[in-house]
Design brief:
two-stranded antiparallel sheet; binds zinc ion
């Protein structure tokens, strides 16, 4: 386990990993969406909204979710770094309202566990009447904000390459493929026919599973929904870089598709 944000006893502190984002006059709007306690420890779910320069039409609203599994640091660090990148280069977000959730499972992050401290895999709890505070808070946001797209960042310890789940709108595959192609310059793609027990093609899985973080069941039209997975065993910096390339490319691709008004 990496120790990017550990206290003296070696235990991680979820607040520390978000410290770079807690600065005065930041170009994003930080909001604490909810707080809860687990025994003596208190946790919060933080949202960072970055609004890019205006594009040609209405703003496209995209949610970026990381750290749903507490032991997958790459996505968390990539989400933090992506916001810092946007601050330096707002053009990357032209036409977008980006809602970034760098740490969706803060107790699991501190414990270095996939599950939250309640013992739940939060990515199996969505839209099933979950009582987990992290899930309830995120469900409320997802339902209210009605995203045009959702991107979740994960790491898989059984995969030796990059891959993605492409769900929701038909357009999703046209967003994912170029993004995978770009990320492949950093880490190899997993081209095996079966990944995570799913049938896969060129690192793409076109199915999800019950309880995963996704748009509300009633959402119409369906947004594009992407789960991007990096190989957990790869070097952390390479995984972060792959996430950053993937995010930039996916956003650029979706904006282009909107601009040409393709009804795919
Ligand atoms: Zn995961």
């Amino acid at each position: 386990m990496t120790s990017s944000a550990s206290d003296k006893k070696g235990r991680k502190n979820y607040r520390k990993v978000l410290t770079p984002l807690q600065k005065a006059r930041a170009p994003w709007l930080a909001s604490t969406l909810g707080t809860w306690n687990v025994a003596a420890d208190s946790y919060a779910l933080e949202q960072f909204l970055f609004v890019g320069p205006r594009g040609g039409g209405d703003y496209l609203r995209v949610g970026i979710f990381a750290g749903v599994h507490g032991d997958e640091d790459a996505g968390v660090l990539a989400a933090v770094r992506f916001l810092e990148e946007l601050a330096r280069e707002p053009e990357l977000a032209r036409g977008y309202e980006l809602y970034v959730y760098p740490l969706c499972n803060p107790s699991g992050y501190e414990d270095g566990t996939r599950h939250s401290r309640s013992g739940r895999d939060l990515n199996r709890e969505f839209w099933q009447g979950s009582r987990e505070p992290e899930v309830q808070i995120l469900e409320r946001q997802i339902r209210t904000l009605r995203f045009d797209g959702l991107i979740s960042l994960h790491a898989d310890n059984e995969s030796r390459g990059l891959y993605a789940f492409a769900l929701g709108a038909q357009v999703t595959q046209y967003v994912v493929e170029p993004a995978l192609l770009a990320a492949e310059k950093v880490l190899p793609r997993n081209c095996e026919p079966t990944i995570d027990h799913f049938t896969a093609r060129n690192g793409l899985i076109r199915k999800g599973y019950p309880g995963m973080l996704c748009a509300a069941p009633e959402a119409r039209p369906r947004p594009f929904e992407i789960v991007f997975e990096t190989p957990h065993e790869a070097e952390l910096e390479a995984q972060i870089a792959a996430n950053l390339v993937f995010l930039r490319q996916a956003l650029e691709q979706y904006l282009q598709l909107q601009a040409v008004g393709q009804d795919l």
